[in-house]
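Severity: low
Component: inverse-folding endpoint
Summary: output formatting inconsistent between runs
Steps to reproduce: submit the following structure tokens with default settings.
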């Protein structure tokens, strides 16, 4: 699987949510609404989720293993930093 596109939409308001991202894989499949969040230990991503009947939030789409999650998160945070740097110009 190749990640062929990452689109970052920065969030203008203050708060923990910093951006919403769409990731395209193999130019054939896209996952929307991945969130970039500022946590106590730095930035991380949250996969798209919905609220279940028991009140808990469950991921709609997510990587199957830690290595894939790390690769996706690394690419997203890299693109997020580029988007921040472009804003500063």
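Observed output (run 2 of 3):
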């Amino acid at each position: 699987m190749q990640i062929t596109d990452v689109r970052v939409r920065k969030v203008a308001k203050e708060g923990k949510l910093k951006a919403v991202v769409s990731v395209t894989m193999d130019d054939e499949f896209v996952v929307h609404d991945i969130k970039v969040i500022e946590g106590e230990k730095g930035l991380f991503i949250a996969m798209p989720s919905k609220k279940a009947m028991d009140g808990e939030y469950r991921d709609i789409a997510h990587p199957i293993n830690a290595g894939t999650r790390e690769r996706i998160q690394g690419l997203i945070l890299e693109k997020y930093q580029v988007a921040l740097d472009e804003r500063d110009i």
